Amino acid sequence: MNAAMARIDCVLVRPQHPGNIGAAARALRTMGLSRLLLVAPRRFPDAEASALAAGADALLDAAPVHATLDAALAGCTLALGLSARRRGVSLDELDPRAGATRAFAHAAAGGRVALLFGNERTGLENDELARCHAMVRIPSVDDFSSLNLAQAVQLMAYELRLCALAAAPDAVATDAAPEPPAGLHEVETFFAHLWRTLDAIDFHKGRAPHTVERRLRRLFLRAQPSLRELRILHGVLADAERMAQLAQPRSAQGE
Ligand code: SAH
């Protein structure tokens, strides 16, 4: 578990539907977040919450239930409120990417972050948003701006996941790490082989090879092939040369 991600709380304020609590737990779990906090949920624990958590039960079981928002925010040093509308509170407004970047950087520096999500029907109240350092608005369309609660959680969790991956790319999959590009000398040897082969298969048909060679050079330099990839390409060229040789009239084959 990424240390910064472990310092980010997802706080659901007065959630109405237990299904949304479960779906939010699942959303967090898939993105490497582990802390779900509940403020005055209408029904919890609940079978529907467990069903929608789809195995992310540990987050539900560990979720503290607080009577007030202030109790949930104790110890938090940065609070971001998710809201579809501004509600007349003068707060900095961030998009999800900027909000996640700020939250992740704050947590990585040792702070404790709370992301506040409001009630399904009424959203976050003004006095709840007033406790926040900034609000995050998902840029939905004006005439239908409100996402499902758990889907809003998923979207923020995804943006945080991107921050975590960018901070520690090695954690993704070391076996997928790209091979280093081959050295310039090996690439030049490949070009020499390629030019020879193009001649052998009469690719240029009397035209000057210069333009094509320049373009192919640009293509392969852009691709930055590895040694292993160059070996495959040499193999392809060697076969093409062999075929060109076979296709020659017997007299030209030196017999
Ligand atoms: N009718 C409520 C919407 C509640 S949706 C309202 O108008 O505020 C439940 C919660 O999901 C919201 O309180 C908010 O935390 C989050 N949410 C939904 N849509 C969002 C959006 N476009 N931007 C940011 N948060 C959103």
From TrEMBL:
Pfam families with a match to the protein in the record: SpoU_methylase
E.C. no: 2.1.1.200
SUPFAM superfamilies for the chain: alpha/beta knot
GO terms classed as biological process: tRNA nucleoside ribose methylation
Top EC category: transferase
Alphabetical UniProt keywords: Cytoplasm, Methyltransferase, S-adenosyl-L-methionine, Transferase, tRNA processing
Highest taxon, organism lineage: Bacteria
Main location: cytoplasm
Residues of the tRNA/rRNA methyltransferase SpoU type domain: 11-158
GO cellular component: cytosol
Subcellular location: Cytoplasm
Keyword Lipid metabolism: no
Any GO MF annotation of the entry: RNA binding
Catalytic activity: cytidine(32) in tRNA + S-adenosyl-L-methionine = 2'-O-methylcytidine(32) in tRNA + S-adenosyl-L-homocysteine + H(+); uridine(32) in tRNA + S-adenosyl-L-methionine = 2'-O-methyluridine(32) in tRNA + S-adenosyl-L-homocysteine + H(+)
Keyword Cytoplasm attributed: yes
InterPro entries associated with the record: Alpha/beta_knot_MTases, RNA_MeTrfase_TrmJ/LasT, SpoU_MeTrfase, tRNA_m1G_MTases_N
Family, as annotated: Belongs to the class IV-like SAM-binding methyltransferase superfamily. RNA methyltransferase TrmH family.
Assembly description: Homodimer.
Task of the protein: Catalyzes the formation of 2'O-methylated cytidine (Cm32) or 2'O-methylated uridine (Um32) at position 32 in tRNA.
Protein name: tRNA (cytidine/uridine-2'-O-)-methyltransferase TrmJ
Gene source species: Metallibacterium scheffleri
